[in-house]
From TrEMBL:
Gene Ontology molecular function terms on file: DNA binding; DNA strand exchange activity
Protein name: Recombinase family protein
Gene3D superfamilies (UniProt xref): Resolvase, N-terminal catalytic domain (3.40.50.1390)
Domain Resolvase/invertase-type recombinase catalytic residue range list: 15-152
UniProt entry keywords in alphabetical sequence: Plasmid
A Pfam family: HTH_7
Annotated segments matching region Disordered: 198-222
Polar residues bias locations: 213-222
Coiled coil: none
Length: 222
């Protein structure tokens, strides 16, 4: 959704606002008003029904914003997390806007990022570093958990042994196979997949025993 600065299109639009509406954002209307109060002539790009974890490249309003915003323009946001769900993911979009010469101003906590500005570059470096640190921490925690499980084989097997077998269902499959039904008929009557029937058959077949291994019945003419 776009709120045009002027309906006649005569005003050179250089002030933009971007925000996302969501049922979880109870004060969305107040945020819209706060952005409108920053400048008399501001064009708002409002994302409707888009989750915060959706990539900016898949957000319709944001794509429209990028098509219109130009070097020297100012972009107002409630806070910088309009661009991301995790702080580390904000580095790329913020850097892209600054490289395009766009000034980014937040309202919730008054702050601004400027193109070709050492302070802004330092903040971006911090965001990038925070992202790398979080990734490293998650990987270390995951590896520590795996090592703990490996040191306790019973816990490892309990976690990765997979879904328990349905013994009653397997017994039914074996009984149907004993009746001479085709694999396909067994699968239909037991309400399981054909691959399940084949797997149970392979595990449950006694030595020297033979089931009917075709999936359909054919009749030969004499």
């Amino acid at each position: 959704m776009i709120w045009p600065a002027f309906s006649n299109g005569c005003f050179p639009m250089s002030y933009f606002g971007y925000l996302r509406r969501s049922p979880k954002i109870a004060d969305a209307d107040q945020r819209i008003q706060a952005i409108k109060q920053q400048q008399q002539h501001v064009t708002l790009f409002i994302e409707q029904g888009v989750r915060g974890n959706v990539s900016l490249h898949h957000r319709p309003a944001y794509r429209q914003l990028l098509e219109q915003i130009s070097p020297g323009d100012t972009l107002y946001v409630w806070w910088f997390n309009e661009f991301y769900s995790q702080v580390g993911h904000g580095y790329a979009p913020l850097k892209h806007l600054l490289e395009r010469g766009v000034r980014i101003v937040s309202i919730f906590y008054p702050f601004e990022l400027m193109p070709n500005d050492a302070k802004s570059d330092a903040i971006l470096d911090f965001i990038q570093g925070q992202h790398v640190a979080q990734q490293h921490s998650r990987l270390q925690c995951a590896e520590a958990s795996r090592q703990q499980l490996k040191n306790h084989p019973e816990q490892w097997q309990a976690k990765y042994k997979g879904r328990p077998a349905n013994k009653e269902k397997h017994q039914l499959i074996l009984q149907l196979l004993e009746q001479g039904l085709t694999l396909q008929n067994v699968a239909e009557q037991a309400r399981v997949s054909l691959s399940t029937v084949k797997r149970v058959k392979a595990k449950g077949k006694p030595s020297g025993h033979s089931y009917r291994n075709h999936t359909s019945t054919t009749t030969k003419k004499a």
